Amino acid sequence: MSGKSKSPNTHIATHRFAVTFFKNIYASASSRTEEAMTLLELRDLILRTKQRTKSGLPWLKLARFGDKPNVNENGEGKCLRWDGNVIGFSGIELDYDRGKISLDTALKMLKKMKVRALLYSTPSHTAMASRWRILMPVSRKLPLSMRAKLCARINGYFGGIFARESFTLSQSYYFGLSKDNPKPDHRAEVVDGRFIDLCINDLYRFEKIGWPSSITPKEVKAKKIKRADVIIRNSDDDGGNRNEFHRHFTDVLVGNVSDALDSMDYREKHGGIGVHHSQRDISYQLIANGMPDKEVIELLMTATFALPEAIKWDQKEELRRITKLCRGAHARLAREESDAIEMPSPDGRTMLSIEEFRSRQRKGLANIFWRKQS
Asked: How far is CA 140 from CA 5, 71, 292, 301, in A?
């Protein structure tokens, strides 16, 4: 079939995402504009925007809104900026207003995270009373339910410092310099790196501790997995051996998850990693790190059908396949937790303990050594 599909342009200078602007707090249809911008363009816009007062500044949101106003009981209302009118999001916004952590400290933390972000000072920010926001674009279209989860991961990483309003789906923010600020320190800094929705390996573990107590989902639970040495045997669909290698369970099976998602292509039978082999390896890795099956399935379905080759694929069949892979991952983890490994044998499969396997290895190596000596 076809070779590797072309990856979307993700360079920071050319990758564009949707930003909605409102001219004022009323957020009426006449005050709304939507633009596709790069992170660098948005930074420059923030730096050059100025008004006499904070209330005169515009608002921004990394999301798209529909045309349904928030009507009250009396049938009044023209505001478009409410949760029920959000039809998609292109990133998250995190608001810090406690005044203690400097903007420079936040910048250092973002660089350490190696994530793509825009950090800017709020209109009321001063060098002595820090107030700033972080904007983080995502790599692809995601369900609206993912936005709060991504916010929780970043909030957990930063130690729970961000305002609860950061989790509100439609919450929008002022941007620009307010000239009535007596000691303005107007800044905007861009950090290049990975998209936050693809930083699963190192950020997912912060999600549980990053939820504000008032909105913590009931399904958030800690999941501990026992690490054990394991033999991993991969097979082709036709039963032939693809490869066999020994590694520790804590090693990353497929490298960085974002790299694995980006490498998914149609070359299943042509020497490439292949979509379905990628689905298998990624589902195993994410479940091993405690991600719920529902989120693993959601992530893999989104990544799979972002491929041009998947346009004609049966979504129900892919959902069935990925769900089955998740069940297989749990079974595999259960075997590993009992320190057992699966070995091929003429009569089928034999389960061996790690100790027994190593003992056989030593005996085999000894026999080879003495044969060579004789």
From this structure: 16, 31, 20, 12
Question: pLDDT tens digit string along 331-372?
Answer: 877 766 555 555 555 555 555 555 566 566 656 655 554 544
Q: For tokens 């049938």, what's the residue? A: 75
Q: Are the C-beta atoms of residues 144 and 190 closer than 8 Å to each other?
A: no
Tell me the whole-structure pTM to 2 decimals.
0.62
Q: How does pLDDT run across 83-107, given as a tens digit for each residue?
A: 999 999 999 999 999 888 899 999 9
